[in-house]
Each structure stands twice: as C-alpha cells, then as structure tokens.
Amino acid sequence: MLTIATDIEVLARFGRALADPIRCRVLLALREAPAYPADLADKLRISRTRLSNHLACLRDCGLVVTVPDGRRTRYELADERLGHALDDLRTAVVAVAADRTCVDADEKGCC
C-alpha cells in the first residue's frame, strides 16, 4: 500500500523528471555510464547551458548526483536501481502500448 504523502510525491517527482525528452535522454545516457557535463552535452547534441538546466532539475529531484573528480564534476545516477527502473519502465510501456502516442496535455487534457 502506498504511503499517501511520500510514495505519491516520489512517484510524481520521477514522473516530472521523465516528462521532458531531454531529461529522459540524460537519464538514459547516465544509465550507461557516469559522465562529465561537457561530454554529455556533446553526446546529446545540446548546448551546455541547456544541459546544465536539466541536470540541475534532475539533481533537485534527487535522481542524479555530482561526484567531484579533481577540478571537474562528474554526474551519475543517484542509485543504480534507477537504471533498472528506467529499463523496466521502458520495457513495460512498450509491451503494453507500443502503438500509442501521448498527446500533450495542452491539446487534450490528458497525461
């Protein structure tokens, strides 16, 4: 049974993080391996400024952490179970509704 306040808040926070395609790409990239922001921006082909905003969001949500590495800072998933959760969620969604698309909430009031 869900603990009303905490479990729902945690799931909603995870959902908000996944609601943005760039944040999904960041999480999937970090699932493969920890990365430095400059390398991650190059890999995802987005500006460093834009990436920085998304990394800050993911960090504030508690999904990624920073690890000091000399003069640089590396990003990684906050817990290895997040990588497994992303794999499981992706597999489950594809299995259940591979032929569906989600219309933006602004257009239809869903999602």
UniProtKB/TrEMBL annotation:
Matches recorded under InterPro entries: ArsR-like_HTH (IPR011991), HTH_ArsR_DNA-bd_dom (IPR001845), HTH_Metal-responsive_Reg (IPR052543), WH-like_DNA-bd_sf (IPR036388), WH_DNA-bd_sf (IPR036390)
Function according to Swiss-Prot or TrEMBL: Metal-responsive transcriptional repressor for the cmt operon. Binding of cadmium or lead causes the repressor to dissociate from the DNA.
One record GO biological process: response to cadmium ion
This protein's record includes keyword Transcription: yes
Name listed for the protein in its UniProt record: HTH-type transcriptional regulator CmtR
Subunit architecture: Homodimer.
GO molecular function: cadmium ion sensor activity; DNA binding; DNA-binding transcription factor activity; lead ion binding
A Pfam family annotated for this UniProt entry: HTH_5
PROSITE patterns: HTH_ARSR_2
SMART domains, per database record: HTH_ARSR
UniProt cross-references to NCBIfam families, sorted A to Z: HTH_metalloreg
Protein keywords: Cadmium, DNA-binding, Metal-binding, Plasmid, Transcription, Transcription regulation
Keyword Glycosyltransferase recorded: no
Protein origin, superkingdom: Bacteria
Domain HTH arsR-type: 4-100
Membrane spanning residue stretches: none
Origin species: Streptomyces liliifuscus
